[in-house]
Amino acid sequence: MSTKLHHGLRLTAHAPDLFELTRVISQRMREVFRVLAVPVIARNVARVVDEAEVRERDMGGPLHNYLVYRARKLWLDEQAGLGDRTTFHDPLRFSIVFGQVDDDYGARRLAYPFAGNRVYTDALLALEADDRPFFVDYHYQNQADRPKEIREDEWKRRRDDWNRLLEADDRETDGTLGHLPGWQLPDSIEGVFDALLPGHKDTIIDLNAHCTIDRRMCRALNRAVTLALRFDPGGGINRVLIRNRCIERAISQYLDTANGKAMPRPAPLPSVRELDLAVDELPPVYEPPAEAVGRICMLYREQARAGD
Length: 308
Hints:
single chain, 308 residues, alpha+beta, five-stranded antiparallel sheet, two-stranded antiparallel sheet, 10 helices, 46% helix, globular
């Protein structure tokens, strides 16, 4: 059976008991979650500010006529349309399970995190008391050679430990870790905006640091150029990705010119204290100058001809 446990961890002797450890993990992971939620909020607020279709979409109910609630609904609708096995479904999820193995070598407490972002795992590895870590790496896989820095006997011990926790021969567990006790970040999809909304007027967050004016301008240029070039919708995902890379190179080329540097930029995103603006109170949707779009289209065609 293929075994890939890339994020396996072992608790050190300095880690507290499971109840206290769960309390510490809960507190730290919620902090990490709030940090990771801000860019998601910034991107969705930017979509409401920058995309006419999103502003005009009927989202149901007067509440969604306000910027922050329309951005929240945009996020929730997007997540609702993604299956739980989709890469971008619930990207801020986090859970962790624990198990213990006892044998002639002693007792070893193991843990396995399931995270949508590597930052969670890094935060786990950083947990410590008096400069002594609570967790150390204890990964294992049988699809690659043993890492040189891990002794052969330890690698085999890792294999045996994880196999015992997986209970691979038990039909009820089906060779997974789902039967083990653990902790899960509650409802991270709903919680993205909820992490900010309570008392958001007292929150000091610069959304423009997470969704910059230049990045928003490039997205607007990309949309305008794609529309102007009137691409054939067929050709498959690979062709679409190649086109998009070419458009991004053409945009970059243009922005390096004197005209590109002098081109008007979008207005900054509203501050967190202004997120309760009504959508119809927002400034007009930013539209790149037609001459800039035309020049980028020419640069794109030149690249396309050179690539043929």
